[in-house]
Every structure is written in C-alpha cells, then in structure tokens.
Fold each of these.
Amino acid sequence: MSYQPPSPSDHRPPDPYWQPGRPPAQRDSAARLLLWIVAIVLLAVVFGAGLLLGQSGMLGAPGVGSGPTASPATASPTASAPPSLPPATTPATTPAPGTQEPGEPTAEPPPSQPPPTPLPVITPPPGPTPTQPPDAPADFGLFWEALEIIGREFVGRDELTDRQLTYGAIEGLVDALGDTGHSIFMTPEQLQRERESLSGTIVGVGALLGERAGRPIIVSVISGGPAQRAGLRSGDAFVTVDGVDVRQLEPAEIAARVRGEEGTTVEIVVERPSSGERLTFSIVREEIRVPATGWAMVPGTNIAVLRLIQFSDGAGDQLQAARDEALAAGAQAFILDLRSNPGGFVHEAVHVASLFLDGGNVYIRELADGQQIPVEVDTQVPSTDLPLVVLIDEGTASSAEIVSGAMESAGRGELVGMTTFGTGTVLLTYELSDGSAVRLAVERWLTPDGELIFEQGISPTEQVELSPTDRPVEPDELRDLAPSDVPALPDPQLLRAIELLGG
C-alpha cells in the first residue's frame, strides 16, 4: 500500500505517529508522548554539545574567552580517559575563562557573546619540514639555514642535485674530524673500487699508483699485465690520461681515470725519470687478478726478495706460499719489501707478522676510551727465524706499518728506507643506505713497545733515499739478471738490504 498524506481538511500538523482512523484519545496520547520525546532529545543534544566542547578543551582547543590553541609539540603523549557523564539532574555550567580543566564540559556561549576570533592560518613551506635529532650539535640548525638560503638564492641552484648537496655535506662533516687521509666519505662508486682492489680483481692496465716528491707515479706493474707488456715501469711519473693533465691529482683520482670497461683503450703519457723522456702508451684495459705478492732470488746470492703489494684478502696465505717456495729454492735470508704498500685488512697483518715471529705481540689496540688490548702472534702460523731486512718508505701505511713496527719491536731485523706514512689507525667502513659509506678511525694502534704511530710513522734503522732517477725494483726484474748486473740496479734501498744480509 502506498503512502497517503493527511487530508487537507485536517488542520493538525503532519504527525508521523498519527494515522487516519485512530481514535481521538489515542491520537492525543500519542501527541503528548511525542512532545516528551522531542524534549528529551533536545536536552540530550544540548548536553551532548557541551560534552563535546569539553572534550575539545582536553585536546587543546580554546575555551570560551581563553587564549590561542596550545602547540601540539607540548601535548602529553599519554591520552586521558574520556570523562564520565554527570548525573542527569546536574546542569552544565560555564567555567570562568581560562579556568576549565581538561575534559570538563563547556556550555555553548550565549547568543549575545561574539564568536571567538579565528586563529591566523600559517602556510608551511613546501616539502617535509626537516627535524633535528635531539642529540645534534647545538648549532646544527645553522645547516638548515644555510641550505635554505642556497636553495633560494644561489644563482646556479637549478644545476644542483640533492646528491651533490648531501654528499658535500657529509664530506664536510667527515673533514671536520681532522682525521685527514684516514676517516673519509666514499661514494658508491669509490666504495666499489676499493672493494675490487682489496678483493684482488680489477679492470684496468695492471699498474699500482702512488706518490713521490709530490708527483703521482707508478709504484709497480703487475707481472704479465697490459701495463708491463706495453713497457710501463715502476717510477714512471704520470703526465696525462686521455689528454687530461693529471699531475696535480691524487693517485686515487688518477686510478679512477685509468680504470674503465674491459676492452676499452686508455692513453697514458708518462715521464721516465731515468732518461727524462716523455712517453705515450695506448693500453687496452683488461680484467686483472692482482697478486698480493711476488718473489725472486737475488742473482748470485741465497737471499730471497718477498714483495707484498697490499694486505688484500688472502695476502697472508699468498706470502706464506711465496716464502715456502723460496725456502725450497734454498733461501737463507729474506728481504720483505713493504714499500708503497697502502695496507688493507688488519687480520692479514697478523698473519704476515706471524710468518717471521714465533711469539709476543704484533701490535696493541687502543680503544676510544683509552683501553689497550694486546694482539698476539698467531702461533698456528709456521714461522722462520732466518735473517730479515724490511724495506719501507713514505708510502708504507696502515697494516704495512703494523708489520714493520712488530719486526722493529721484536728486534727481528733492520728497517731500511724512509719514515712510513703514519696511519696508525684501525678503520671501519659503515655503509649508508644508498651504497655510499663513511670510513672512520675507531681505534689507534701502538707498536708492541707502546709507541704511537699515528701522524709519526715508523723511522727506519737505516735511512736510504731514492733519487729522482732511482726506483724500486720488482722481483720479476731480478730473475733475468746476471750477478754482475746487481750492483747497477737503480734501487739503493734494495742494494743496502742485500749488503746488510751479506750478499
């Protein structure tokens, strides 16, 4: 049955509870009931509005005539329980301005009272608002100020990238530590190159770079590698790489230019100190397995030269194998060449030192809190007590200094050459979320005698310099020499070591 509206002749207002045909008495009762229900509903609405206003006050909304809304930063993190309903017979009252308690119900303002003045609208700057960690330096807010000014005022701001700014800020942060040459920031690409180097596999030309007298030079060439086949020699000084003058660049920067994709060609121009001539080489890059060690007998003697290029993964095992081959070939004395060795893994330094020491300490760890922890020789490694001379120079660093210091402290042999670099710190690499990393000095190390090497280095027992025309001689170069050719070698440090061992 469809709905039918009341008859126009009926002067009652529309009543949803009235139905045509209901007796008048029942209709009057229904009307009275309806009035009571309406009254109760109105009372509930008024009371509910006051309750809601009271709850708003608990969350920081202003009461009638009160001050501005409290900052959310000052709100307690703990939520209050909802207020209980007062008895129905208790009328809601309006507290004095600014005196209501949290959760206390507040009545609506009288109609004659003007509405509260709306709060000003503050538009936040675009993007997320940076937050400062609670333990940040007191003046760290200056960074955000400077960043905002650069983004707004710098004439070349459109050419900047977030990565440039972020990496530059991290580099500045690490530089502020004052640990120059040790604690550094590395991009993902630099970190990958370092890992490749320490793993012993790279794509390049097979030459190790260093520095002498402020000039970038080739420290050594890998036996059988493309650099050796092309004719590059240790001691050659870099001039250009692919037409770019690199004489003022750091060795690491030059190495990044020399490396590249396998099968591609790089053009290198060098100056050869022995002749003063400038030479040009075009070399095809190859994947190269960089051996950590090499060895050869000095012609006409029973002295073996053990060359350790770096303390890469497995360097201790490689040097042990080389030493044992030399022993099998009749070696009666050793020259351990650590020149221009940049270091590497500290556990490999313990292994190498244990090849020549039968007990005692290799070095002492000094933690940030001043605690000192001795690191002992690994007695599981078979050692030899045959006469020993260690070659060192300004490029001998890190783990190479640990080994040099251990030999000196134990009185194991003479140190010949120049004072070492003076790293003297244990570095840990902390990788960041985008693949970059911060490498930090977390410990210092001391020699077993307790001598600090950081920024001081290890002094040789016999100082021997290389002139501009001299260069370190690699073991591979010794193999094809006649005994009469040895005194003419352009390596006075090696010659002095041979002399000390009676060769």
Amino acid sequence: MAAPKRDYYEVLGISREADQKTIKDAFRRLALQYHPDRNKEPGAEERFKEIAEAYAVLSDPNKRADYDSGGFAGVAGVTPEDLFGGINFEDIFGGLGFDIGGEGLFERFFGHRRRARPARGPNLEVDLVVPLTRVATGGDETVRVVRPASCPSCRGSGAKPGTTPRACVACKGTGRHMRTRREGGVVVQQITPCAACKGQGSVIEHPCTECRGLGEIERDETFQVKIPVGVEEGMVLRVPGRGLPSTQKGGTPGDLYVVVHTAPDPRFERQGADLWHAETLSIPDATLGTSLAVPTLDGTVAVTIPPGTQPGSVLRLRGKGLPAFGGGDWGDLYLRLEVQVPERISTEERQLFEKLRALGRTVKRAHR
C-alpha cells in the first residue's frame, strides 16, 4: 500500500510563510543529502523525488498559490514535465562532481524528456470583490473577463469574407528583409521586419469590417468561480485555460488568476478571521450599564454592557467572526465601545449635570 503524500512544507522542513530563498536553501540542503549519487541508502532516490516535487511546486508562485488554496488537488493536473521542467539543476548542483546533466537528470529520475512546445498564452489577472457573507459561507461567484478571440466573420484572417490576404510583394511573403555586407573577412547579415506588411508577410487589401482587419475581437465572458469558505483577503484563485490565447500555433491559453477582495461592510471591519464593530454609548449608559443589540453575520445578539464602561473598552464575542480558511476555528467579533459627550444640552440636563458634579465633590470630601 502506497504511503500517503506528505505536506510539501513538511517535506522541506519550512513554514508556510517561507520566502523563495528559504525554499531554495532548504531544497539544496536536502537534495544534496539524498541525491542517489551521494546517498546509497535504500529509499534515498524516492526521498529525493519527494523533495524535488515539493520544491518544484513551492518555488513556482503560481503552483504554490494553487497548492495553498487547494492542497494536492490544486496541483493534481500538473504534468511531470511542467512540474520539474522549471528546476535549474545546474544552478542547484553545479560543480559538485556528480550527475546533474539537466536533461539527463530529469529523464533519469522522473522518466520524462522535456520537449520544446509552443508557448502558452499570457496569464490574465482580475480582481473580484465579495461580501462578508460569501467569505463566511463560500460558494460560486460570477467573474467577468474581456478576452481577445478569433473573429468569427473572417476566421482570424483579417480579410473581408470572400477575399484573402495577398503575399507581400516587397518581401515576397517572408515578412522580413535581409541585407548582407562584408566587413573584412566576415559576412554580416542584417534582418529587419518588412515595413510594407509590418512583418506579416501578407497584405490585407479588403479588411474585415467586423474586426477592422485585426483578425480578432474582444469578447465578454462570464463564468462561475468557487470561493472557498474563509477565503483570505488578497487570496489568488487560479482558473486554468481562461487566460489569453497563445500567439503560436498549437499553444495553449494562459491561466486566469482571480484576486479576491472583501467588500466594505458598514457594520464591520475585517482583520483576518476576526471582525470589529463599533458602538457609541451615552454617558448614563456607560456609567450605569445597559444592553445593546449588536449585529453579527447571522443576526443580532444582545450584549450586556457593564456599569462603569470606559471609552475605548473592547468586549469579545467568541466565535462570532469569520471561519478560518482551511477549516477549524472561527474568528471572534470585537465590540469597541466609545462614549459620546454631548456638545449641546438643555437647561434641565445642565441642572442635572450640575447636581451630579456637586454630588461628586461631596463624595470626594467625605472620603478624604
């Protein structure tokens, strides 16, 4: 029976807040310890693979974000080629006298040969603002993205339907000009984009009216993203394949990164999983005590304010905040109390305050 996978941070022996230098240093130290060319103990090669896998994920900001938000499921679709292809083995092991060999090491330990592939399209990033109730419950939210797409009218050619671009006469369809000159015994070639066709190799004489000869249009897309319970402020959610299309034939689209922000709420201020709420008391209520109906995310609760409450006092309502991301405990709701001193008072109120002041002076003298 296969052993369960260990948490990547645990594998490298680092905290979840570790920076890139800490991650690289931990990987180098452990990889040198368990590299099969140095360590002949049983299980060293498997341990090395485990360390390399952890480093491959945590050293890549995008993969690390996926892992932090979704665990092993967040990186389940990553191929070994994508996972390990970004590790610079020469940089890690160079000059230490055993097999590094970039391609050879990759193929030897992980059984895959890295192949040149068409470049992926650029990634997109959008901001998504969600209310506190969505942070508390999780669920689907709608994201709107504007992305370029192939023009349906001209099918991306840029030419008016029924016409085709013609090969550029100036460059004979190559999209470039080459100038050759000899300097001493050296032949120098200078290659520049063709000015007539702007390097395209073809000229559109009758542009498509829908895309104005660009071959692409902007398309609004809306789709649902899953907001995890307790999503943290600024957390990034990855949506594979929803980025910009590749500029190379056969290339896959980039990814969409959704940055989640918490919408302002007039009732609360968010601090992690905790919420803060402010209430203002009158002088009599602060002095004598009172009861307040305090809002929470699931309705109001009655809170008893003790007599003699001072300005700036804070009461804590346990478990009335937000759920912590990843499950487990709930944050608290902190009630900050201020005391309002009236700027204007009636004649009757003034008389009462004068009596109260006089009474206070009498009490002080009696205690001397």
